[in-house]
């Protein structure tokens, strides 16, 4: 198993179908925290729907179209990161994240996403990495700013969460910008 240490007792590693019980319990524990922002918070409601969600990402990874990682803190699943969309052909990918409120404020998402962008740009040759979030999700926008992504605009009524349409902020970094930022 491959594990990336994030510091402060945290690790980033693949979140796979065999984690279905643990993922279902994790989502249940923080469902109300996630529901305003994360669509899967309403769809992952038991072990079966958890396994289906995790299997979808396993299938996407097999086709090189997405990836899903968990963040474990002191051995407990506490959040995760994902390549929601990953197109090597177009050179564009989108990163998404979630985190338990119990471990917020420790820089775990920023550190994990920095590694993901490094891998996407430096290893896989992606030319554009996107970050999308609801305008009211200030914690998410703050991560994009900390990572040096550029705010490109807001897509109006672009996204549905819990049956409600919401706007989406689009942030991005281009490969040349990321390489220049990484060297400084």
Overall body shape: globular
Mean pLDDT: 95
Cα Rg: 16 Å
Overall helicity:
25-40%
Short description:
The chain is of the alpha+beta class and 184 residues long.
Kindly describe this structure:
- With 184 residues, this protein is an alpha+beta fold.
- The protein contains 6 helices and 8 strands; from the N terminus they run ββαααβββαβαββα.
- It has helices at residues 20-34, 40-43, 47-62, 108-123, 138-146, 175-183; strands at 3-7, 10-14, 67-73, 76-87, 92-99, 128-133, 150-161, 164-174.
- Helix 1 packs across helix 3 (47-62).
- The N and C termini lie far apart (32 Å).
Please write out the topology.
Elements: E1 3-7, E2 10-14, H1 20-34, H2 40-43, H3 47-62, E3 67-73, E4 76-87, E5 92-99, H4 108-123, E6 128-133, H5 138-146, E7 150-161, E8 164-174, H6 175-183
Parallel strand pairs: 5-6
Antiparallel strand pairs: 1-2, 2-3, 3-4, 4-5, 6-8, 7-8
Helix pairs in contact: 1-3
Top keywords for this entry?
184 residues, alpha+beta, eight-stranded mixed sheet, 6 helices
């Amino acid at each position: 198993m491959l594990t990336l240490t994030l510091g402060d007792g945290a690790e980033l590693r693949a979140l796979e179908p065999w984690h279905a019980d643990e993922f279902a319990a994790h989502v249940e524990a923080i469902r109300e925290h996630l529901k305003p922002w994360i669509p899967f918070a309403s769809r992952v409601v038991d072990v079966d729907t958890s396994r289906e969600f995790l299997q979808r990402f396993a299938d996407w990874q097999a086709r090189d179209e997405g990836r899903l990682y968990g963040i474990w803190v002191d051995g407990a699943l506490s959040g995760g990161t994902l390549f929601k969309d990953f197109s090597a052909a177009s050179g564009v990918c989108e990163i998404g994240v979630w985190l338990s409120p119990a471990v917020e404020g420790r820089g775990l998402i920023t550190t994990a996403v920095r590694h993901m962008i490094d891998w996407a740009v430096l290893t896989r040759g992606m030319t554009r990495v996107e970050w999308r979030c609801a305008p009211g999700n200030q914690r998410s926008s703050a991560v994009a700013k900390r990572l040096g992504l550029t705010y490109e605009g807001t897509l109006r009524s672009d996204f549905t969460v819990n049956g409600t349409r919401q706007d989406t902020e689009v942030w991005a970094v281009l490969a040349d910008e990321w390489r220049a930022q990484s060297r400084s």
